[in-house]
Amino acid sequence: MKAWEEGLAAMYRGPAWFLYAELWRRAEEQKPDLPATDRRRILDRLFGPIHSKETAGFSKAVLLGHVFQLLLVTYLSIELAPLQPGTR
Q1: pLDDT tens digits for range 35-74
Q2: Around 14, how many Cα atoms within 13 Å sit in the side-chain half-sphere?
Q3: Which domain holds residue 48?
Q4: 88 assigned to some structural domain
């Protein structure tokens, strides 16, 4: 059972670090004046449950899905902003 759990944890690590890096980059673009220590504190809090050994595998999958959605919404909100009425 332990090997199965380690394999599952490894499966979540890759997407989690990808999301962390993308949100870091997005935060740098949107809030360049935010100190790196604050940015890291915020992201570490967001990703804490995903990296925690106490969080069940299914819960990690759901959390990763929500963070992917968050990233998608941030991209779409920036890309679609020029199409909103009154912003042309």
Answers
A1: 999 999 999 999 999 989 898 888 888 999 999 999 999 8
A2: 4
A3: 2-83
A4: no
